[in-house]
Amino acid sequence: MKKAIRIEPEDNVAVVAQDTSAGETLDCAGASLVAKGAVPLGHKIALSRIPRGEKIVKYAVTIGLASSDIAPGEHVHSHNVEDITNRLCNEYERAFRARKG
Amino acid sequence: MSAMSEIKAYRRRDGRVGIRNYVLVISMVSCSNTVTERIARTTGTIPVVHEQGCCEFEHDHARTKLALIAAGRNPNVGAVLLVGLGCEQTNIEDVRRCVAETGKPVEAILIQREGGSPEAERRGVDIVRRLKCVCESQERVPCRVADLVVGVQCGGSDWTTALSANPVIGAMTDLVVAAGGSVLMSEVAGFPGSEHIVASRAVSHDVGLQVLDMISELRAEYIETYGQKIEEVNPTPGNKAGGITTLVEKSMGNIKKMGTSPVQGVLKLGQAIPHPGLWVIDNRAQGPDPFNLTGLAMQGAVVTAFSSGRGSPVGNAVMPTLKLTGNPETFRKLGSITDFNAGAVIEGATIPETGKALYALLLEIAGGRETKSEINGNFEYIVPREAARKKRDACPLS
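Output (structure tokens, whole complex):
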């Protein structure tokens, strides 16, 4: 069976280990998952429903926000993810520097 | 103490521990490279040659000198012969003194003083043969993982690097740190985008500030060099085609090699490691993989775990390089240059169990098992030049 790799247990996306077509079943950490659309090799697939505005979690950290409702098995990429790297870095840095040791 | 945390290695007079007992022949200037190489070839030892050592600007020369001194001081090196011309900028006596501080035998010859190249070569061969005898009489003694300094790096990446190989290295990092050892992470040019994650793991507020200050400088240098912000050009179109969506995601693929261990501090090249744990080495040299690898060796790493999705032969003159790949195809195709298959993760193994297996191999290598880089004679040593760095420091060792 084709595979998707979930890197950390708290991740809500996994990475597909081969090119995947719509309707194909993938094994992910012992559970099975049906691809909702084509997901190219190395791209992310949603493991659960991720409502618009919710965090996309990979490596156990927030890597972006869902820019639309994402269904389990859907391809997760620039079309449905907002890149909030700047906000994450700037807000953290501002708060950190404001704090005293 | 568990058996897993014991290894047999070489304890040096300065207290540091090496996992090899290399004899090194170091050239002071490009003019003495050929004699250096010929002495090493005749005696089966390792040459360190480079393209500099004279007519350099002060800061550039400080870096050259630091790199040469650091090669000699690495705990994997049991004895050193320095080979100079006689009129070069590199002060051979300074280098000799700084290496000798570690308590290992260091000898020096100058081609002009010996009366020519064949004469210097004959004299050098005699000296190295004697140094080899000294090293051969030294034995491995019981040491601990807590005595080890381990580097982590990646290069020649593909889609598996951030997915399997680097998380597996991260699991190994956490095991080394848990056993009381040290891990060095560099490749700081890849940090912007996840500085909030690295800073959040800092052991103190001051260390968090060190991380954030370094990244602020890196971001400013990037704009000055390329005229654009890092996030304007990252992730690149190639990254996106490969499945990377955001900069924090791209950056995390690099940071993952650090596992989740606390960050003890940021060190500049040449700064001694104050105590064990996970350290960030602020080496901003941008170039081929040996630049960063040499930086880790300069910092005293005795072995580096290096992941490459596409496969890489690189090694280092003073530091065995454990090569792993996250791609099972690459492991099958390039087994002669690859020591470990983290691609097992792609085929169903878990990251923690594969990380344990990598840790076990690391300890075997520390105990004497040769890496593919050593078997294949990959003993590169490339002085890391930090062209973009605005604030430069003098050589801290001289």
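The mean pLDDT of chain A is 96.
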